[in-house]
Design brief:
Elements lengths: L1 H11 L6 E3 L10 E4 L19 H22 L6 E6 L14 H16 L2 E7 L3 H15 L5 E4 L7 H7 L5 E5 L8 H8 L10 E8 H8 L9 H11 L3 H9 L3 H19 L2 E8 L6 E9 L2 H29 L7 H5 L3 H22 L2 E3 L4 H5 L9 H12 L16 E3 L15
Helix pairs in contact: 2-3, 2-11, 3-4, 7-10, 9-10, 13-15
Length: about 425
């Protein structure tokens, strides 16, 4: 039986996830990365979408549920009044027809829990332009505001609410979640905020947005068409910050390469214009399919980079768990599911990552006598960023320690807090020079 499973795995397994690094900037400069893994599913947001959570929602919700509480907890503990602001610019109905929590309700559940347990206040703004969805959303939000959770519904477009949100967030950490089904906030409006009033390291601003590859692909078809729609092309101009993308489609045609170049160009420009690290996570209809959109994450914090990568890896496992349950329910009498056959085994991936990450740590030690892991997130994880949990770094450090290649034994602190030193430097010795 196991040989049959392995045969299916070898035949069906999609390309192994990884990271494509598209820039050679020094490691302390902002970077953009496009993850090449992430077999996720995307659909529209109509009545069928809101009947129950689907696979893209599983990943998105798990990512938000894992990462946002870490952002609010770490930044809110230092913030004035322990207050953080969250904006969901395309919030939808807040709750699915089967009673499952949508992203707004999950954020309010988090806010209620953190206020009760650590005294943190997360003030949320939920924007939904569709009247029916906004009405449903208002009912869900009212349940939480009656219990003291600070949350606001705005039944308009997100652009018209931004000034209110920025005023509310003045002096406080801010997280922007922008998840439209097509084109969202204009690029220049986004840059004006992130490179303007929200350009400082503190209070921090972070971003997670949906960049639609389907919309790019559709609009790209207008470039060389005699019936090309100029209005449609101008909407993409607004979304990506100019008409530079048109030459990409003239050169490459409506191809996967053209769409990839546009998405990478968007990430690169956003990183350069805002001074943020930008990470793109592809979302697919099914394992092995073309990406339909990217979830684009922006941060100025190495801690943010570290925790987001760990959250992506863990959210991917939740997605595979859900897909496997769906397969099992579809054919309960099957000996094993197709998902089980093609699913990347996390333990195997992490075992493969350990020696690679260990050598990357050793490479950093060739450059400096000592460093803290979190200060070099992308150099530490390399191609395994977003694929493996951060505990893999601890295992890699222990591997170096056992080989007498570092004085750090990988114990006592969290993986991102490990101080890796050359073997001739003892941890108890005078403070070594560290690279931040």
């Amino acid at each position: 039986m196991e040989s049959l499973r392995q045969g299916l795995r070898d035949h069906l397994r999609p390309r192994a996830p990884g990271v494509t690094q598209r820039t050679s900037l020094p490691r302390h400069c902002p970077r953009y990365l496009v993850l090449t893994g992430g077999d996720l599913v995307a659909t529209g947001a109509g009545d069928e979408y809101w009947a129950e959570p689907n696979l893209p929602s599983t990943f998105k919700h798990e990512l938000l549920t894992r990462y946002v509480p870490m952002f609010t907890g770490m930044t809110g503990s230092r913030a004035q009044g322990h207050r953080v602001v969250f904006l969901d610019g395309y919030a939808g109905r807040g709750r699915y027809g089967n009673g499952s929590a949508g992203s707004p309700e999950r954020i309010m559940q988090m806010a209620e829990h953190q206020h009760r347990t650590v005294g943190l206040t997360c003030a949320s703004y939920f924007v939904e332009q569709d009247p029916t969805s906004a009405n449903d959303l208002a009912g869900v939000v009212a349940e939480y505001t009656r219990r003291g959770v600070p949350a606001h519904v705005r039944d308009t477009n997100v652009d018209s609410v931004l000034e209110e949100v920025l005023t509310s967030a003045h002096g406080h950490p801010l997280f922007l979640f922008l998840d439209p089904t097509g084109y969202g906030l204009p690029y220049q409006r986004l840059v004006d905020i992130l490179a303007g009033p929200r350009s400082s390291i503190w209070p921090p601003t972070e971003l997670l947005l949906n960049f639609s590859l389907e919309a790019v692909r559709r609009t790209g078809g207008h470039v060389s068409s005699p019936q090309g729609n100029e209005n449609s092309m101008r909407r993409l101009d607004d979304a990506v910050g100019g008409d530079w993308w048109r030459e990409v489609f003239r050169s490459h045609g409506v191809t996967d390469d053209a769409v990839r170049h546009v998405s990478e160009g968007f990430a690169r420009r956003l990183s350069t214009a805002t001074g943020m690290h930008v990470i793109s996570v592809p979302v697919r209809r099914a394992p092995g399919h073309k990406p339909l959109y990217h979830l684009v994450f922006g941060t100025r914090s190495q801690h943010g980079l570290w925790l987001f990568g760990d959250s992506v890896a863990r959210a991917m496992q939740k997605w595979w768990d859900t897909l496997e349950r769906i397969d099992s329910a579809f054919d309960p009498d099957a000996l094993f599911t197709v998902t089980e056959a093609i699913r990347p085994d996390l333990a195997t991936v992490e075992n493969r990552a350990v020696p690679v990450i260990a050598e990357q740590l050793a490479g950093l030690l060739d450059q400096v006598p000592s460093f803290t892991t979190v200060n070099h997130t992308l150099a530490v994880f390399g191609d395994f960023y977003g694929q493996v949990r951060d505990s893999t770094v601890r295992t890699a450090v222990k591997r170096l320690y056992d080989a007498s290649r570092t004085s750090c034994d990988g114990k006592r602190v969290k993986p991102h807090q490990l101080v890796v030193t050359r073997p001739r430097l003892h941890r108890a010795s005078a403070h070594p020079r560290q690279v931040s």
